Every structure is written in C-alpha cells, then in structure tokens.
Amino acid sequence: MKIGKYKINEESPIFIIAELSANHNGKIDIAIETIKAAKRAGADCIKLQTYTADTITLDSRKNDFMVKGTIWNGKNLHDLYKEAYTPWEWHEELFKVASNEGLECFSSPFDRSAVDLLESLNTPAYKIASPEITDIPLIEYVASKHKPVIISTGIAEMDDIELAIDACKRMGNEQIALLKCTTSYPAPIEEANLKMITDFQSRFNVISGLSDHTMGSLAPVLSTCLGAKIIEKHFILDRAMGGVDSSFSMDESEFTDMVRAVRNAEKALGRVDYELTQKQREGKTYCRSLYVSKDMKEGDLITMENVRSVRPGYGLHPKFLETILGKQVNCDLEFGTPMDLKFVNLESLIE
Q1: CATH number, domain with residue 309
Q2: What is the mean pLDDT of the chain?
Q3: Is 10 helix (H, G, I), strand (E, B) or coil?
Q4: Beta carbons of 25 and 85 less than 8 angstroms apart
Q5: Is residue 158 domain-shared with residue 213, that is, in the same domain?
Q6: pTM for the complete prediction?
Q7: Cα–Cα nearest to 129, from 192, 213, 207
Q8: What are the φ/ψ torsions at residue 22 (nearest 5 degrees)?
C-alpha cells in the first residue's frame, strides 16, 4: 500500500495520522494552524471528515435522531453534525496547506458526493469511519477509485468486516487496511482489545493498525509492539478551546510525546538479526572463557582447580573444558594466562 510518498508494509515505519475532525471549531484559520501544529508534532498525515449535516443524517427531531449514551448525550444528530462539519469550500485550501507542510492529506467521505469532491482534489487515500462500515454501496464507490481504503472497525462484527473487505475486492481493490477502533469517547483502556491488530493481519491478510480514542499514549505504543502500521489520533491545538471532540483529542505537546514514544518503540523492536553490532562484539570480551587459575608446569594435568571458566572472554571457549580436562599441558603456564588449545597435549589423556 502506498499513500502519497509513504509506502506502508511490514517493514515500513508506522504511518501516523492526526485526525482534525471538528477541532477547527468552525474557523478555517484554526484548521490551518492545527495542520501546521500536526506537522511540528511529528504526524505524517492530517485527516479530514467530508460531510454536511444533510449528507450524513436527516433533519428530524424524532427520538431516533437524538444522541444517547455518549458525551454528546441529548443532542440532535443534525444539530451535532451541523456544528462539527468541515465546510467543503475549505477542502482545497486545507489540502494545499498540508502539502506545503509536507503532510499527506485525505478524508473520510460519508456519501458519494464527498467522494467526488475528494477525487477532484486528488486525494491519495480514503478512510471509512467506523459507523460507515455497513454502508456497502459507499465502500464500493470508494474502492472503485482504486486508492488505499482504510477501514475503522469500531462497531463492526465479523460479518461487517468481511462484507466491507469483499466490497473492496469486488471492485478490484485490494489496498485495504483495517484499524482496531473502540467507538467510545473517550474509550476505556480495558476495551482497547489491541490483540485484534495481530488477528486482522493473520485472518484477513491486510495492513492493520489503530484508530485510538483512549487517553494517552499507552495504546499506540502497545499497538506498535503488536505490528500496527497505521496509528490515528484526534488532534487539537488546545483542549481549552472546547468543541465537540476536544475532550478526547491530543494537543500538540501530547501528540509530540506520543510520536516520540511510538518511534522509540519501533527502534526498540528492531529486527530479527543474529549478527552482532560492533558495540556488542566489544561487549563479548566480557563473557566467560577458560583461564589458567593456578601456576602449572609442563606435563601437569589440567583440572578444575588449575583451569576455570571466568570473565573476561579472551581465552578458550568454555565448551572446550570437558575436552581438555585430564590432559597434559605442553609448557609452563602462569596464573591468569588465557587458555589455548596450543598449550594442550591432546593425545595425553591420563587414566
């Protein structure tokens, strides 16, 4: 999978996405400053959401359209999305700002018209938000553009995931990533279920990652250790600004710390490599080896008293101890001499 200049595979660094979402509070200058802050914080990408209240829901006051059981409890869906949406006329400028900052930029579309807008801006990828995983016609339309499709799984059962993947493949698109997501704001850490990241890889043979709503950096760091190749976090200039997503978004300082922790986790994981570095080779001189531990005369027998396995490692490998025990030395040897096979009469086993 390739998103802009970034290749995303098993060997690549993690692709880190800063989710702008509604954290512009309706002001384009805040959106622009947030993009610039995301770059400073170490993000690889800024992600938008492309909808209007009318493309995502109905302007109805019936009970079905009232939010229940979330931080937006009691709000009407149409009112919430009208407050949170990113105006479509901003998109072109935000894409340009991101490009000028060296960030990739793409979005979550919520209907076909949003996809058309994003195509006109040459978006490098698409994100399917968790609740849209059941919108198979939308996923088919997105996949038909033959660009990477990143799918969040926050409300998905097995059938939902299989249907979404099948929809992409049916359109000839196998550039698919699945992100473990917990659709709760903020998400309790005990509901993160990060082991799903490795299961996604093995079960569906896709790139996997994390769209995280937990607080802090713990889940992103742990997901790094579990093989995540994409990490997404909501990003805000300052939580004190308020806004519909502010309470579970990271500010610049927190995001910077998260990126640093993820990059350090990547370094710590390293690679499978049994070759020693120069530093490790130097350290090997402090391992055990065989040394003369008592003065010996030519013809003396080697015993556990006059040859011992000790530090440092300049002497004979300890694996030879059993071979040389009971044999004669062929020269005088002083205490502290590193043992060598050339000092041993290998034909001199004495019963």
Answers
A1: 3.90.1210.10
A2: 95
A3: coil
A4: no
A5: yes
A6: 0.87
A7: 213
A8: -95, 15
